[in-house]
Amino acid sequence: MISPGQKVYAYFPGCSLETTNKAYDSSTRNVAKVLGVEMVELADWNCCGATAYLSIDDGRAMVLSARNLALSEGQSRDLVTVCSGCYVVLHKANHRFQEDPQLRDRVREALKAGGMDYRGTVRVRHFLDVVVNDLGKEAIERHVVRRLEGLRVACYYGCQITRPYAEFDDAEFPESMDRLMGWLGATPVDFQLKTKCCSGMLMTTQQDVGLDAAGKLLREARRAGADCISTACPLCQVNLEAYQDKISDRAGADSHIPVLYFTQLLGTALGLGNRELALGDSLTRVEPMLAARLEAP
Amino acid sequence: MKDGNQIGVYICHCGTNIARTVDIQEVAGFARSLPGVAVVREYKYMCSDPGQALIKEDIKSERLTHVVVASCSPLMHEETFRGACEDAGLNRFLFQMSNIREQCSWVHHERSEATEKAKRLIAAAVRRVAQHRPLLRQEVPVRGEALVVGAGIAGIEAALRLADSGRHVYLVEKESSIGGHMARFDKTFPTLDCAACILTPKMVTVGQHPNITLLTLSAVEEVKGFVGNFHVKVHQHARYVTADCTGCGECEKVCPCVHPNDFDLLGSTRKAIYRSFPQAIPNAYVIEKRGVPMCEETCPIHTRTQGYVNLIAHGDFTGALKVIRDVNPFPASLGRVCHHPCEDRCQRGYHDESLAICALKRFVADREIELGLSPEPVRPEPNGRKVAVVGSGPAGLTGAYDLARKGYAITIFEKYGKPGGLMRTGIPPFRLPREILDREVAHVLAHGVELRLNTPLGESGVTIESLKEDGFDAILLALGTTKGRDLGIPGEHLVGVVNCLDYLREANLHDRAETGRRVAVVGGGNAAVDAARTALRHGAENVMILYRRTREEMPAIGAEIEAAKHEGVELHFLVNPVELRVGPSGRLNRVRCQKMRLGQPDEGGRRRPIPIDGEYVEFEIDQVILAISQLPDLDFLVKDKDFDLTKWATLRADPYTCETGKLGVFAAGDAVTGPSTVVEAMASGRQAATAVDLYLHGEDLDILRQESHRPQELPLMDHVRRPDLPRKPRARIPVNHGAGISFEEVERTFTREQAMEEAARCLVCGGCSDCRICSDACDREAIDHLMADTVHELDVGAIVVATGFEPYDVRKLPRYGYGRHDDVITALEFERMCHASGPTGGRITTKKGEAPKTVAILHCIGSRDESHLEYCSRVCCMYSLKFAHLVREHTGAEVYNFYIDIRAFGKGYEEFYKRLLREGVHFIRGKAAEVTAVAESPEEEGKLMVVAEDTLLGITRRVPAELVILSAGLAPRKDSSDVAHVFSLGCAQGGFFLEKHPKLAPVDTPTEGIFLAGACQGPKDIPDSVAQGSAAAAGALVLMDRGKVVLEPIRAVIREERCGGCKLCVASCPFGAVEYDAERSISRVVRELCHGCGTCAAGCPSGAATQENFEDTQILAEIEGALAV
Questions:
Q1: Residues A207 and A181: beta-carbon distance below 8 Å
Q2: How far apart are CA B283 and CA B245, in angstroms?
Q3: Is the pLDDT of residue B605 over 80?
Q4: B741 pLDDT exceeds 80?
Q5: Is the previous residue joined to B456 through a cis bond, with omega within 30 degrees of 0?
Q6: Which chain B positions have a beta carbon within 8 Å of A253's beta carbon?
Q7: CA B333 from chain center: how many Å?
Q8: pLDDT exceeds 70 at position B1098
Q9: Mean pLDDT of the B731-759 span
Q10: Cβ separation of B934 and A193 shorter than 8 Å?
Q11: Strand B518-522 relative to strand B623-626, pairing
């Protein structure tokens, strides 16, 4: 009932896009507008279920998640998120719902108490998948007004976008974002750590480990000759951009590099301004880098 | 229940197997109470001789009519007891077996329950057997020939065993040589014998064995029939090299086409004509032809494009010209004016840009002129026949060229004072210089062709009758189009309105075209563009082209339109002249045009122009050149009623045979087809010449009517999509900017370097370019480029399937970096690297050519992995150990083996492992997690690191390696499901073929007469494959030596009187064993083909189809027996 060619989607921002990662939200919404993609925010959405909650009480976490799916089901639209965490949790809820009849009954019972139901028909998508596969090369290229010629980008996918559910790209060696950057005129560098761990929540609990993990990514991107790192996950973005001074000190090696969301690079190529893409929110030197690398719009 | 039944029931204790859980006495007592039962006996081992004797005795003494044995599964002993019945004179099918062991005593713990169930099972059997009828078995002879599919080591072994025992063997192999994977190996474990040394003697024996028919490049397409009598269809792909080949290799030296070498790997290359390895059997070379490439397919005269292009790439320009002239007498002219459809679907175009084929043709032709060389005409012995060709345009000249080269005496009659037809009168000299045209016409005439100028068809020249009187055996009319079509609008006959053909003829033939100041050319074809550019050169100040569609629909060659624009010709689109008007002076001064828009596409696919009501535009002009369309001048010809016009006012001729209404008179070119391009007219002339030749040889022209095949796009070459093939746009055609608007030629020719570089862009998607210089190089005349595929129909008694495996594709595991890091290679690549005749000549080396100092060997790549191959591939540990030894031996490098477990299970294997430990090879217990070039410390900089968890030390190890070998698992072949379908085999583990029993029948299959051998059944090493090859041969020999097979009578039957002819059974039979008799409207079972599966019986709506021994009454009785205790 949901065709892949549709241009209307239900949009699930998730909690981080309302707090630490507002730039991801605004760049996503504005990019979608330019591309002619209607993203209707899911009314009354709640927590996706959260990766951490899953390991404490997965039944309750699933109910949380399924409530969002149930809200979306009535609309016959794919549920799109830009947060890899939300993406993987909603996916997991969907899969578990199909595979585990006991859990399914429990979830439906819980939803029923709230006057809702879920039948398991919603398709959960990442916005990167929508851009690369639903829109595709020609549609994107048609909208590009400021080619990112000469910009060298390390495309960083993180872990959750293709694992465990390699729905739209290779689990170990995804290339969607690299292709997208190529369409925009940028040069994706050979970034070998594209799916390696950013340290996730360890940055807050075991910071030593977190700094080392994120540091490896930053330095490898620099070594590969990248001008910037492009991310597809709010947590990756924070881990990579927020600790660069600390990481540099700890490693005794300059580990600074601008980090931005893939939607911000996409938006730049589509001719959106720094304000619409909230480039000013960045903790790294994104604006000077773009100004130096690209011709003025 | 029938009266008079005397049923014997025999209950087996099976030692304690049954007796422990089933109360035999109670069951026996119960059995005695069953209706029809005359005798009940129990015994400790009913299958033993005394047990069987009990049954035989009773059959005789008690006159038993039926027998039931309650014991184990029928799979174990049904045959035993049926045999006992038969021995005692009772039909073997008046017997029923009741399984009270596997289905009763073994699965129950409660004695009472088991006893109860045994009773029911016996009651069911007794009821059922009472319904049994005697059935007869049929014996059929077994054919003495065998088929072995796959000529790896298992297939070779099976074939040799069969052949040595005097049986004839057909050995079918898909590749060009036998030998399979083993032929690519260097050494074999654990003995380290050279693989070739032990394999090639067997291969040679196969090649020479009088009892073996070897079919290489072949695949089995269909297997019909049944055990002992299989009918097999084998498709053999042409080798294009005959058995006369001695393998001298001269052909390979001259072949210009280079392709990746799939046998040697590691980026090595081979030619299109090749031999996989020096000891190949058969030793003959083979040519890789992938099919006809689109450049040749779309060329109207089917020039062997890739042939000449690749010769140009190698600097053989004379050879290239020879390839072109095989079909084309005008290389220099066509190299300038052709509309080159060959370039439209060039595979190179999918990668960057299509090849500049036309300009390459021009280059070789121009080079000949530049060097002052003249082509040699082909002058065979005259065959004594005379043919008249009327018209010296491209169609006439090509017809004359072809026929003269076949020995005909040709005379061409030309209306005008110079030959060439529209090539001269239509095409202006700045596109086709006259000296070029003259030279190429002269080449045609040099074939002994006589040319009579100023001789039109008509009273003033020659007539059909006069030509016949002059002794011409056939006449080819190639009259062309010489009249322009009118627009049919007011003012068309004013002074200043001229037809394009007349205008161009005057300009091109006499250089004196009357030209206005402001000229409008009406039309969008090549003639219109030529006329516009000619007008500029004849003094017009302003020239415009008026066309009723848009630029996209213009039929003229794109480059010519661009040139015209460049020279200043104005293009006006979507305008259609409706009136030509005179000014105050009474002279033509305006053209009034209707404005148009585009509507739906017409049948030709071009969008139709539609007038926009009331919208007009006027242009000020003083001359109008009409280039709408062209017509042949046939006024004289049609006075003869044998000649007829089509509705398009062209000459009617058969589209296939070119015959006109008059016997012996053929017609071709634009006069028949309407306006076309030069190359299309040439193709038409060729077609007519072929017809004339057949006609004069008294042959049936109908063979020309065979529908030509649809052009098929060849599969894309692998490297078309490969990013490492550098993108290289086509060479730009040089332009003579100095020419300006003059009569000098505008386009120029490539330089030698440009041409060779451009030609080298050809991907040779045809495999072989078909240049055929290998034929010249072959002293033995063993090369036949026109060889066709063959289909062999074979009758065999038994089949051995030994189709082997393929290594798992390591690209599916990106974590190991294959394809991204140069020095990560596969096991098979390492085998070739070690091999003395491999791409490195046996040198173990990194991509840079250095001997590695550290080598990592990663076990279990793909194997024992839930996401890839779940199973252990069985040979990887041992071949990895072999690799470790070879690396140590050749280079002394440190070798690290990353393993999960070492599985050294075979004879001498564990000893080999111990030896390796002593040799100082490092073993790290832990599956490698990844191979990375990302350094974690300064020491790691620039190195490949293998990361693994060492499970003995409990730490993560990062080991640098200069060469990494991925020991990939063994996977089923990609086409295994197709093969399984052809041979009715079952598949397991993603495609390995299923044996009949994993322990007791490892080489049999459920289909009797078909055997398995080697790695197609599961991963296997060489000793096991050889053992299976022998075993499968033995299985086949057992069948053949017995000489006959018994067909079980348990087959379907269709009762005619009940059959409604619905054909449901025909459609549902998986073995094609049900035939429909249309005359009697019933279906019938072919007993020999029926496998007794019962599908038809289950599906038959009228109950006409039944299965012997599984009839409804029998099954219902059994159910009743089971329920009615």
A1: no
A2: 8
A3: no
A4: no
A5: no
A6: none
A7: 36
A8: yes
A9: 83
A10: yes
A11: parallel
Interface contact flag, B814 A172, Cβ < 8 Å? yes
**Above 0.90 for ipTM, yes or no?**
no
Helix (H, G, I), strand (E, B) or coil at B221: strand
What average pLDDT does range B826-855 have in this prediction? 95
Q: Pairing relation of β-strands B805-807 and B970-972?
A: antiparallel
Residues in chain A: 297
Q: What is the largest CA-CA distance in chain B?
A: 135
User: What are the backbone dihedrals phi and psi of residue B8, each rounded to the nearest 5 degrees, phi first?
Assistant: -100, 130
Model pTM score: 0.82
H/E run at residue B692:
helix B678-696
What's the mean per-residue pLDDT of chain B?
93
Q: Is A190–B813 a contact, with Cβ atoms under 8 angstroms apart?
A: no
pLDDT band, residue B722 (cuts 50/70/90): low
Which tens digit of pLDDT belongs to each residue from A189-204? 999 999 999 999 999 9
Supply the pLDDT for residue A3.
40
Q: How far is CA B1124 from CA B40, B524, B1111, B1121, in A?
A: 20, 93, 20, 5
> Which contiguous run of DSSP H or E holds residue B477?
strand B474-477
Cite the DSSP H helix spans in A36-135.
51-56, 58-73, 84-99, 101-113, 127-129
CA dist A218 and A237 (Å) reads 11
Rounded Cα–Cα distance for residues B835 and B131 (Å): 69
B934–A216: do the CB atoms touch at under 8 Å? yes
Pairwise CA distance, residues B125 & B27, whole Å:
13
Give contacts of B810 with chain A, Cβ < 8 Å.
none
C-alpha distance across the termini of chain B, in Å? 16
Verify whether the Cβ–Cβ distance A192 to B815 is below 8 Å: no
Task: Give the distance from residue B611's alpha carbon to the nearest chain A alpha carbon, in angstroms.
Answer: 33
Distance (Å) from the C-alpha of residue A47 to the closest C-alpha of chain B?
Answer: 32
Say yes or no for a CB contact (<8 Å) between A220 and B814: no
**Cα–Cα distance measured from residue A217 to residue A223, given in angstroms and rounded to the nearest whole number:** 10
| Residue of A163, A220, A255 best to disrupt the B interface, most CBs of B under 10 A | A220
pLDDT (0 to 100) of residue B705: 87
Summarised one tens digit per residue, pLDDT across range B466-482 is: 999 999 999 999 999 98
Q: What is the pLDDT of residue B707?
A: 65
pLDDT, mean of residues B924-950? 94
pLDDT for res B1006:
86
Q: State which amino acid sits at residue B113.
A: E
Interface residues of chain A, partner chain B, Cβ below 8 Å? 170, 172-173, 190, 192-193, 216, 220, 223
Q: Which residue has the higher pLDDT, B275 or B717?
A: B275
What the block records as the tokens of B983 is: 């041979």
Model pLDDT, residue B739? 65
Element (H, E) at B890: helix B876-891
How much of chain B exceeds pLDDT 70, in percent?
Answer: 98
Cβ-based neighbours of B704, under 8 Å, separated by 6 or more: B656, B657, B687, B690, B691, B694
Q: Of B1124, B1117, B1122, B944, which Cα lies nearest the Cα of B129?
A: B1117
B941: nearest CA partner in chain A:
A223
A230 vs chain B: nearest CA distance in angstroms? 19
Structure tokens, B718: 């692998």
Predicted confidence band of residue B1125 (pLDDT cuts 50, 70, 90): low
Residue with tokens 């993560």: B956
Q: Residues of B713-736 as b/e, b for ≥16 C-beta within 10 angstroms? A: ebeebeebeeeeeeeeebbebeee
The C-alpha atoms of residue B725 and residue B122 are separated, in whole angstroms, by 75
Mean pLDDT for the stretch of residues B505-531: 91
Tell me the C-alpha distance between A36 and A30, whole Å. 10
Give the residue-averaged pLDDT of A172-193.
94
A172 and B934 within 8 Å at the Cβ level: the answer is no
